[in-house]
Design a protein that fits this description.
This protein is of the alpha/beta class. It has twelve helices and 13 strands.
């Protein structure tokens, strides 16, 4: 079939296998062009098919020569229907890892379920013995608690009152005002249940109980703080409550793992184009302005650049890992530079539908969004007939 992008709001419902593979190879090439990382040997990535999870798997494998296990939801292609971008990304990664002589295995299923955790433990025990790095990078709007069976739904809402600010339709470039009604206590409870640290803790408990977590293991998860512009909808909203819970979980895990030489961190990353971030009102416009400023200053990074710096300059640089007063690793340091934030704030005040193309990098945002799904990738013939059915090697 000839595969074209089909969008529904902030979702692209199709993906291009060749384009996704090209994007994965681009990240591999970036890592291989950098100095090797003296890092982990065996790595588990939970949420491994896209974004920071995929970047962490690539950095570990091709930067530190590590063996990896990736956990992600299955979404295979069928005749006339594409697989998810994550499925194609994982297929490309697995093929590249095998060609490089690395052990790599995929565990597909609901990361929140006890069944998937048990399956991952068995694969690690059988193939690797133990893991010394666990990356938790799950982004989901819904979670079913494996113990109670209750299903929770996360929401993107401010707290304490309605919030009004600018937003953009990144497909059309139309800038408008959006008002978001405040969340309730139930909204907070459910968002924390989905996006907080409960499942991260359950994964570490399962790995320890299964005897497959090395004594000196490191585990990380991801958070975001952001600028004054986005904080009311993000850090000070329902998601912020979940991130507070995640960071409290990191401190608890650090205490647990520290007894045997292990450690746990939350990594605060910069704002990037992801399917999750594109769904948050206000954020796409902020990222478009941020990208323009950081590119002009020569300090722009994507997931793979951020992850390499995390590995090479923080986690595996030797000595103590530099953290802030809350014990968090800050890879958002360039985004949060005062000169960057002051310029973004200036652009924010001025931007309108008429000036957005001039004042921001909306075109870069839009292109990067489609590249998440394998489109608008240099060197790919999008008029060619392509088989949407792609096998992932070593699926469990």
């Amino acid at each position: 079939m000839i595969i074209k992008p089909r969008t529904r709001g902030f979702i692209c419902t199709t993906a291009h296998p060749i384009g996704c593979a090209a994007q994965v190879q681009k990240q591999i090439d970036y890592i291989q062009a950098r100095p090797a990382v003296q890092g982990p040997r065996n790595v588990l990535v939970i949420g491994a098919s896209a974004g920071y999870g995929l970047a962490a798997r690539i950095a570990a494998a091709f930067g530190a020569n590590a063996n990896t296990v990736g956990v992600y939801r299955p979404s295979e292609g069928k005749p006339g229907r594409t697989a998810s971008a994550g499925w194609y990304n994982s297929a490309a990664f697995e093929r590249a890892a095998q060609a490089a002589g690395l052990k790599s295995f995929s565990v597909t299923g609901d990361a929140f379920s006890a069944e998937t955790k048990a399956k991952a433990v068995e694969v690690i025990r059988r193939e690797l013995g133990q893991v010394d790095l666990v990356v938790y990078s799950v982004a989901s709007a819904r979670r079913t608690d494996p113990e109670t069976g209750e299903t929770y739904n996360s929401v993107l809402k401010p707290l304490g009152g309605a919030y009004t600010n600018k937003t953009v339709n990144f497909h059309t470039g139309e800038v408008s005002m959006v008002t978001l009604e405040p969340g309730t206590e139930q909204d907070v409870k459910e968002t924390v249940a989905v996006m907080g640290g409960d499942d991260w803790q359950l994964w570490i408990d399962a790995l320890r109980a299964g005897g497959v977590l090395a004594d000196n293991a490191t585990t990380i998860s991801y958070s975001y703080i952001g600028s004054r512009i986005t904080q009311p909808i993000y850090r000070e909203g329902t998601i912020g409550q979940a991130k507070d819970h995640l960071e409290a979980t990191a401190k608890h895990l650090n205490g647990q793992l520290g007894e045997t030489g292990g450690r746990a961190f939350v990594t605060v990353s910069k704002a990037l184009v992801t399917q999750s971030s594109s769904a948050i009102p206000v954020v796409p416009l902020y990222i478009s302005a941020l990208y323009k400023v950081m590119k002009e200053k020569g300090i722009h990074e994507g997931c793979i650049e951020q992850t390499y710096r995390l590995f090479a300059e923080r986690l595996y640089a030797g000595g103590d890992v530099p953290v802030d007063e809350e014990g968090r690793i800050r890879i958002d340091d360039w985004e949060m530079r005062p000169d960057v934030q002051d310029e973004v704030a200036r652009l924010w005040e001025e931007v309108t539908t008429d000036s957005i193309a001039r004042l921001t990098d909306l075109e870069g945002y839009r292109k990067e969004f489609f590249q998440l799904f394998g489109f608008e990738t240099e060197g790919v013939d999008y008029e060619a007939d392509v088989d949407p059915i792609v096998d992932v090697p070593n699926v469990n």
